Amino acid sequence: MKETEEILQDLKRALLEKLKEALVSVIPVIVLVFALSITPWVQITAKELWIFLVSAFFLIFGIGLFNVGADMAMTPMGQYIGEGLTKSKKMGVLLGVSFVMGLLITIAEPDLSVLAGQVAAVMNGSTLIWTVGIGVGLMLLLGVVKIVFHHDLTAILLFGYMLLFCLAALLIERGNAPLLALSFDSGGVTTGPITVPFIMALGVGIALTVGGHNASENSFGLIALCSLGPIIAVLALSLLSKGDLNFTVPDYSIDQVLDGGLKEHLQETMWDVGQSLVLIVGSFFVLQFTVLKLPFTKIGQIMFGIIYTFLGLVLFLSAVEMSFMPIGYKIGLQLSQHHAGLLIGFAFIIGLVVVMAEPAVHVLNAQVNDITGGEVTRRQMMTALSVGVGLSIGLSVLRVKYGFSVLYYLVPGYLLSLGLSFFVPRLYTAIAFDSGGVASGPLTSSFILPMVVGACVTLQGAGAVLDFAFGVVAMVAMTPLITIQTLGFRSVVAASRRKKLAMRRIMAAADDQIIYFE
Predict the structure, then answer these.
(1) DSSP letters of 324-384?
(2) Helix (H), strand (E), coil (C) string for 161-216
(3) DSSP string covering 402-442, please?
(4) What pLDDT does residue 20 have?
(5) Residues of the chain with pLDDT under 70
(6) In degrees, to the nearest 5, what angle opens at C-alpha 268 toward C-alphas 57 and 47?
(7) Contact status, residue 176 vs residue 238, Cβ threshold 8 Å
(8) Measured between alpha carbons, how far is 152 from 160 in angstroms, rounded to an integer?
(9) Running DSSP on this structure, what letter comes out for residue 293?
(10) What long-range pairs does 163-166 form, CB within 8 A, spacing at least 24?
(11) Is 1 helix (H, G, I), strand (E, B) or coil?
(12) What count of other Cβ atoms lies within 10 Å of the Cβ of residue 301?
């Protein structure tokens, strides 16, 4: 009885701490939206503001509950599976399970469903989801091979991005260029709140079990590869696409959600999240009875965590779809009508703060802080991510205004990212490429993307949305690669300066000890 009370007290403290973090993360977004609503540039009705405020309340609780659930269930499940399958020394089973789990966990990812719903007019949603799932599964399998045999992540990424840009060139040559930005966006939305804690923990479990030099560093990179796989897979699918590519802008209005009924919308969200989690939990229990055989206490903790994860995701997704998506679209549509420069400035500022509300970002920051022993702190990570995302969204709106291809950003951006990887510690490269996938979460696809779509409708017309609005998720996924590796480069330069200064002091001290005879 006493042990149960202690567990409940610990759970209560953890939940309160996560709710405080979520509150601090979401408040800046709320303040920015309310500040815009009192300006003459954006007309948001009182009804929309009230619904937005209620949605923000649910969003905060959703993020808090999800983060507790991730700590109790998603992260332990990934680590137990990684450790258990590696200790079994059955390489075929480890690789097979990695592929299947990569496929299932991607189908379960809510970010991908949000994107698929917005592009249903040009690509079948189920086809897109399964294609992305296969891409993640194959890359997760490759990532496990990298960890087990200690292969260099940079070499794999170089080859992967060479293949990616070759496919992109073929897509342009065949006249399917409008699908280019969508292909890059699919990689960004894949690694979201369900995928990140599980896959990162899976890598940690395998790396620590395999051991070897720099085992902790070796655990990073799975998220980077799982972001790359979907882009390659969707580019390959796009090469086979034929027919009409005219994009129809979805109905982003709040009334569209309300007319369908809040109860029905909530039930639909619960059903979607429930189906997703059942796939993952079912696979885990199959492994539990065949390979893992964990004690009952750990299974009980995981089940409590699954309940928290379920409730958190239902609240989070209901909030963003009910209000954040319509408000984001309206801001982009109306603000760009007055002055595009205002929208670019707002896009940069909202990018700085919106990343703090992404659930998976908190999971990544905590894991990076723990694994690096504080070498890369949470504050450093959050600052680098915020600046990167702010720049990416501001540059995306600039692209919408002038109407040029996303490749003008992505090609030099990825070349710079890969170039930096040769000059910074491997740990920073692995963290940076993982961070790119994590930064582009549900709020990016359900608030930022509709905002940019609204701006594109005003500045370029509804027919240009597929060409110029999509690609913002890809930009959000790319810029942290540069900012975090720049952080690593700065640490290298600082270490070099400290070493030179120490050598000067040693030499000066040695000179003082010399006795000169006359």
Answers:
(1) IHHHHHHHHHHHHHH-HHHHHHHHHHHHHHHGGG-HHHHHHHHHHHHHTTTSS-HHHHHHH
(2) HHHHHHHHHHHHHCCCHHHHHHHHHHHHHHCCCCHHHHHHHHHHHHHHHHCCCCHH
(3) HT--THHHHHHHHHHHHHHTTTS-HHHHHHHHHHHHHHS-H
(4) 84
(5) 1-8, 110, 121, 211-216, 242-247, 256-261, 359, 363, 367, 371-373, 442, 509-518
(6) 40
(7) yes
(8) 13
(9) -
(10) 163/232, 164/228, 164/231, 164/232, 164/235, 165/411, 165/414
(11) coil
(12) 17
Task: Supply 75's token pair.
Answer: 């992260």
Q: In whole angstroms, what is the distance from residue 455 CA to residue 471 CA?
A: 14
The pLDDT score that the predictor gives to residue 222 is: 87
Single-letter residue type at 363: V
Collapsed DSSP state (helix, strand, coil) of residue 372: coil
Contact (CB, 8 A) for 204 and 77: no
CA distance 286 to 178: 42
| Measured distance CA(95)–CA(98) in Å, rounded | 5
Task: Confirm if 20 and 68 have CB atoms less than 8 A apart.
Answer: no
Two tokens, residue 45: 């009705």
Q: How far is 64 from 22, CA to CA, in rounded Å?
A: 6
Residues near 117 by beta carbon (within 8 Å), at least 6 away in sequence: 125, 250
Burial letters for 340-365: b for 16+ Cβ neighbours within 10 Å, e otherwise?
A: beebbebbbebbbbbbbbbbbbbbbb
Q: From CA 66, how far away is CA 309, in angstroms rounded?
A: 5
Query: Residue type for 75, please?
Result: T
CB 105 within 8 A of CB 129: no
Q: Are 227 and 436 in contact (CB under 8 A)?
A: yes
pLDDT confidence of residue 487: 80
**Six-digit token pair at 126?**
């189920």
Residue with tokens 């670019």: 344
* Tokens 């009952």, residue located: 296
